[in-house]
Amino acid sequence: MKYSPAQGFARGLSPLLRMGKKYGAEWWILVVGALIILAIVFLAVFAPIVAPYNPYAQDTGPQLAPPGGQHLMGTDNLHRDVWSRIIFGSRTILRVAVLAALISSLIGIPFGLISGFAGGTFDRILSLTMDSVYSFPGLILAIAFAAMLGPGVINITLAVSVIYIPTYFRLVRGQTLQIKEELYVEAARAIGASGPVVLGKYIFPNVIATTVVVFTLNVADAIMIEAALTYLGLGLPPSIVDWGMDLSMGKKYLPSGQWWMITFPGMMISTLALGFTMLGEGLAEILNPRLLER
Predict the structure, then answer these.
(1) Which domains does the chain have, with CATH numbers?
(2) Residues of the chain where predicted confidence (pLDDT) is lower than 50
């Protein structure tokens, strides 16, 4: 049986509508956030095709040309096309933010599992260490590490990742302490299951859903931190296309009326962070067991 394009679109849309009826507004918050992220990921992946100019080229048009004509978002003080720099800059900020959240999760989750499961002196020492790191404001801690490590993609990624390790550790450790007292865990121990088996088969699957939510929210925060560090001159060198760098360069031209140099990078930073925040908030509500019982 053949379907028209309209019928095919309706069939593809029906699962989304069913999920919307089941979860309500939380589902649509998740969908909107996911669409924002996918749109910017598309720009990052296909940047050489989508961008009309080379982001480094200094002969794309007049200096400080306003948005319009051949330059959708205008040009900067070096004759570079702002829209092309926005597209290529999405690659940098996504790479740093996602990788920073991934590194922190790969460190914080295992330590949280082991610390909560083992207990004793090891747990107390590790908890004290993580609480000490957690007590520092995130941006100040990132500034300290960025100043110590110096500019560069790898260095700023490490500087941002450090501030989220305690978040994963505290979350996973707290859940591990609770789950290891459950009857099914005690039963697994009673039949001779080893510690690694209990952690991997019975405890870890019950904490991973929450860490997924935290991951998306950490990416949103990492986007803002990365942009702030680069804006302050502690993140990436000028040779790398980045939204925070464009913000820093454009601020001096704002009083003279060249608003587009700082407006569009700022809008993209806020939009991408909003997309990950909406995705995380939607997942948090949908994965809430009390919501599923409604």
Answers:
(1) 5-292 (1.10.3720.10)
(2) 1, 9, 290-294
